Amino acid sequence: MSKDVNEYLRHIQDECDYLISVIVNISLDDFLEDETLKRATVRSLEIIGEASKKIPSTYKDTWSFIEWRSMAGMRDRLIHDYIGVNYIIVWDVLQTKIPVLKKDISKILERKN
After folding, report:
1. C-beta of residue 66 within 8 angstroms of C-beta of residue 95
2. What's CA 12's distance to the chain center, in Å?
C-alpha cells in the first residue's frame, strides 16, 4: 500500500528541519572534519530524494517549481557513487537549496490542510 502524498511531503519537511538544525552555526571546515555529521546529512539527503521519487507525477506537475528531478538525482548519486561524494557540493545544497525546499514544502502542506 502506498503512503499518502502528504506523508512523503512531511518526510521531506522533517529532513529539511533536521538539516537546517545541524548546520546552524557551523563552518564548512567544521562540517568537512566531522565524519558523523557528513554521514548524517548525506542520509537525510538520500531520504529527501527517495521521498521525492514517491510523489506522483500529477503532483510534481502541479508543484513544478520544486526541483523533484534534482532531489532524486542527488539521492541516486549519493547512494550509487558513495565513494565519490563531493562534500563541498553537499555543503552548498545544505546552505542554498534546503532552506528554500523547506519553505516550498511547508507552503504546499499548509495549502493542502
Report:
1. no
2. 6
